[in-house]
């Protein structure tokens, strides 16, 4: 099979279109046919330019084919419109009229295949088949009878004189009332559905394309409303192939989400206004024969009443088309504000999820620390990287923004966008706004952690002071009293009183020791969490099954918090639950330190204001953990997972 090189076919098509369009314009200027010449130039120029850049691009060749068809139709009409009639004008003009439905079908196929050169799915092939049948039927009717000649005032009459012209004239207006809008509507619906499902580069390309279509529709509506003519809209149609070509080659240079959104909304509203006005003034006027002025006032009133509700609905549809199923920038900021006023636990995960919903990112990671040493603390979806990065490494390529508070870097927000390569300027602006909120979140989190650490340090210092100071002095005094009682020979009463004072002093020393252990157990600092939990189990009033799997020392704040969680759970089980046995589990997992205290008591535990469980909830929240309390007739279970970093 003979194959023609793109380097030959492209210039040949370009030369043919140039000759046809230039020759057509040389014959004269007819406003109603001008858009066909512009479309021929636009489709062919865009197609050939893309072919020159990418010879194998299927969509580019569809553009060239559409441009050639438009050029043939334009030149033939120009020839037929010239008066006085030129030689063979009847047949040449005829060629420019009856081919219109077929050109419509070819244009629809080209635009439905954008940007890949293939239809979105096999289902659309049946739609194309139906359009082709309709196009052939309309073209055949126009070729056999002069049904289009009233609309296209050619200088020469229709070359064929066949019977059935009257019947064709009756059928044709109904057929084109169905067919011509169908040719336009089908490819518009296809493009919108394709945009709603597209991802990555294809989504970015289709946004420019839909913008051009919506802008053309808005100009068309404005022309119908202001001048009662579709000519402005027809002259704006070449914007569609121009925008498509720009999208194919330069999609990464454009950012039109807000423009598309506004154009879709106001284009839809312009269409609604036009349709409403036409229905009331034309249709109702013809039915009742009413006054034009009165009906115009009625149409204006109806449009004014319906405008705002319809605008809001059009805005929601435009948001869905432009932003897909993700949150709008306003919704993203509102959602984050709601999270800031809610419980502290899970706040960082919620922040990452909000960023993902607002930007459409495939992954979001929140890093904290200084600019030279950042560690991941949260991610969406779950699974943060276990590595240390610098701010410069993360922000390289524009996929991360620094998180700052008070002029000081406290972290970074990094996003992975997938195939589309980069964020739009609006998405980058939203990411910067969310990063500013994240700075406040991280600063509050760091402040809470500093308060917890300061409290633990104060407890340790007080315990050490009591142990090394007051407790030692009391022990020394008790020993002196014991020696004094032993030396009091014959003074029985004095010896008894000295011994009694010594016993009271020893009891006070034991109570002071217990108080010091409650502030901060020395065994936790010296021997670690496993030994400290064993100490709690040994001193519990109830039998305790203890399961500890912690093979390393953890951060002091983590160990202290774990100790107090278990201590509170054992105390509640013994004092309030009426339990017979308690089970304590401490296990180091990939998510952090898993703690669970379970008893078989009567249940009823709640984190009431001022209770120990409420204090534990606040303490855990400072470490990005959450206390889960499950209570019922079968007992109570306290469970938490403390991130260990």
Map the helices and strands:
Layout: H1 6-26, H2 31-53, H3 58-81, H4 89-98, H5 100-112, H6 123-144, H7 165-197, H8 200-226, H9 231-236, H10 239-250, H11 257-288, H12 292-323, H13 329-340, H14 347-359, E1 363-370, E2 373-380, E3 388-389, H15 391-395, E4 400-405, E5 408-416, H16 425-487, H17 492-519, H18 522-527, H19 529-539, E6 544-549, H20 556-577, E7 582-588, E8 593-599, H21 612-621, E9 628-632, E10 635-642
Parallel strand pairs: 6-7
Antiparallel strand pairs: 1-2, 1-5, 2-3, 4-5, 7-8, 8-10, 9-10
Helix pairs in contact: 1-2, 1-3, 2-3, 2-10, 3-4, 3-5, 4-6, 5-6, 5-7, 6-7, 7-8, 8-10, 8-11, 11-12, 13-14, 13-16, 14-16, 16-17, 19-20, 20-21
Structure, described:
This protein is α+β, with helices and mostly antiparallel strands. The longest helix is centred in the last third of the chain and has 63 residues. The protein is rod-shaped. It starts with 5 loop residues before the first helix and ends with a strand.
